[in-house]
Design brief:
This protein has helices at residues 3-15, 18-25, 29-43, 59-87, 98-103, 105-114, 131-136, 182-186, 202-210, 223-231, 241-249, 279-287, 291-299; strands at residues 48-51, 54-57, 90-96, 119-125, 142-145, 155-169, 190-192, 217-219, 236-240, 254-256, 263-272, 315-317. With 318 residues, it is of the alpha/beta class. Helix 1 (3-15) crosses helix 2 (18-25), helix 1 crosses helix 3 and helix 1 (3-15) crosses helix 4 (59-87).
């Protein structure tokens, strides 16, 4: 099996047709068909058949689809490691939920990367529903976010930080200082960050429990932007408690009481098992539960300007 053959097959599986796979890989349909024919001959399996409803995969074809994605991811990871080895540097790729990326990742990454002179860290914001796929295909080394519904046998899950989500308003908001009922909360304008989008995570969970309709939800580019709007009396914001503690203490925000509030959640670190994950991922898994790491996530790393040695941080918002 060659990488070109595996790419042709995975594209066919992902897109559902040879024609679409050819367009995606910028090759001819004949090239895709030749690659798949070689795989069929080598593996002794038809892999899939064409039906009126599209492609129907054999058990062997489904198994190859899963394994091919892993192999291609491992190949990409190996290329990166070899290139980095020549410069004496390592790369740790982290996928994080948007809530963790905004509130806790900067302090953690700065402190962790600052401990190793040869380590670069790449952070990408991803939908937690994709964490398992990203790990098994080796697209990332670590995933951090809400607890998964199930943990695969090849994956290690490490809970490391509990937090609260609260509702806040500006001091001149009609509900300031009140304990609101479910109906009253449901009818408010809710000011939300990108972490409220999707099905998994604390913010979507709170909105579902309160049955807040979509037309009452306003999504901002960041959690901080939504909280800033709340300070000006524009509506109710959901916020991580430790991130707005100073604003509440200063009198710029008021915490609301009500059903399902505050909501309690936890952040979890997912990696492949030690045998399959890079050393830096295992190091981060051990480090993230330490008191220093917790303090860095809650308050920033505390590294002084004289000691700070920046790593490469690439943040991709998707």
């Amino acid at each position: 099996m060659t990488p070109a053959q595996l790419r042709a097959f995975t594209a066919t599986v992902r897109l559902g047709s040879v024609k679409a796979a050819a367009a995606d890989l910028a090759v001819t349909e004949a090239a895709i068909s030749i690659h798949i024919a070689h795989l069929r001959k080598e593996l002794g399996d038809r892999l899939f058949t064409r039906t009126a409803g599209g492609l129907t995969f054999t058990p062997g074809g489904l198994r190859l689809a899963s394994r091919a994605a892993e192999l291609l991811g491992l190949q990409h990871r190996t290329i990166l490691e070899v290139r980095r080895a020549g410069t004496g540097r390592r790369l740790l790729r982290i996928a994080a939920s948007s809530l963790f990326a905004e509130h806790a990742a900067p302090g953690l990454i700065e402190l962790f990367a600052g401990r190793a002179a040869d380590l670069d860290v790449e952070l990408s914001v991803q939908d937690p529903q994709r964490f398992d796929t990203l790990l098994t295909t080796r697209a990332v080394d670590v995933a951090i976010g809400p607890p998964p519904a199930t943990v695969e046998p090849t994956t290690t899950c490490t809970p490391f930080l509990n937090y609260q989500v609260i509702a806040v308003v500006g001091t001149d908001h009609p509900l300031a200082g009140c304990t609101a009922g479910a109906t009253e909360l449901r009818d408010q304008t809710w000011l939300l960050g990108p972490s409220a989008v999707g099905r998994i995570g604390m913010l979507p969970s709170v909105l579902r429990r309160l049955s807040v309709p979509d037309h009452n939800q306003r999504i901002f580019q960041s959690q901080a932007a939504s909280v800033d709007e709340a300070k000006h009396g524009k509506g109710v914001a959901l916020a991580v408690a430790f991130a707005v503690a100073k604003d509440i203490a200063a009198g710029d925000l008021v915490q609301l009481g009500g059903p399902h509030l505050p909501a309690r959640g936890s952040w979890n670190l997912l990696t492949l098992t030690d045998r399959e994950s890079p050393q830096a991922a295992a190091e981060l898994r051990r480090f993230v539960t330490t008191p220093r790491a917790t303090q860095a996530m809650l308050r920033g790393s505390g590294v002084t300007a004289g000691r700070f040695r920046p790593a490469v941080h690439v943040t991709l918002w998707s």
